[in-house]
Amino acid sequence: MVNLLDTSVLLWTLAAPNRLSEAAREAIAAGDPVLSVASYWEVVIKARKGLLPISDPVSWRTRAAGLLGGRVLPIRASHITALAALPDLHRDPFDRVLIAQAVAEGLPLVTSDRQIGAYPVRVVW
After folding, report:
1. SS in 3 state form for 60-114?
2. How many domains does the chain have?
3. What is the pLDDT of residues 79-88, one digit of tens each?
4. Residue 39: closest CA among 81, 8, 12
5. Sign of the C-alpha dihedral, residues 68, 12, 39, 121?
6. What span, in angstroms and rounded, lies between the C-alpha atoms of 68 and 23?
7. Are 32 and 70 in contact, with CB atoms under 8 Å apart?
8. Tell me, what CATH number does 66's domain have?
9. Facing residues of 109 across strands?
């Protein structure tokens, strides 16, 4: 099963897997995880602001993908089209991109964010 991981889930999978729900752990273990470029973008911004303790955010994406065996999903025009169609229920721009990517790609989104369940996307948590 292929699942798109939200940024928090990705970080927790690598550094604090005990924070994941059992369903999230099973989904990640059972399939080919997809890591969004949006998560890489978010990690770089938050690390530079001192909000994440990641010493080398530039190489973080490669290490994360290697550790999880996941593929990296770029942001495509179809994702922006899906983003434009989303209702304004969630204010976090990175989460909105992830939701749009999940919608456009037909992927479940592994996330603990309950607000995301209001969108037309399958949530795994």
Report:
1. HHHHHHHHHCCEEECCCHHHHHHHHHCCCCCCCHHHHHHHHHHHHHCCCEECCCH
2. 1
3. 999 999 999 9
4. 8
5. positive
6. 17
7. yes
8. 3.40.50.1010
9. 4, 123
Structure tokens at 66: 């290697």
Cα separation, 41 vs 10, in Å, equals: 13
Task: Give the global pTM.
Answer: 0.92
The sheet carrying 71-73 orders its strands as 71-73, 32-36, 2-5, 109-110, 123-124
Kindly report, residue by residue over 31-47, the tens digit of the pLDDT. 789 999 999 999 999 99
Domain of residue 30, residue span: 2-124
pLDDT digits (tens, 9 = 90+) for 51-74: 999 988 888 888 888 888 888 999
Q: Which two three-digit tokens encode residue 79?
A: 């994702």
Looking at per-residue pLDDT, the higher value among 57 and 94 belongs to: 94
φ, ψ of residue 32 in degrees (nearest 5): -95, 100
Q: Which amino acid is at 50?
A: G
Q: Report CA dihedral (10, 13, 11, 66) to the nearest 10 degrees.
A: -70
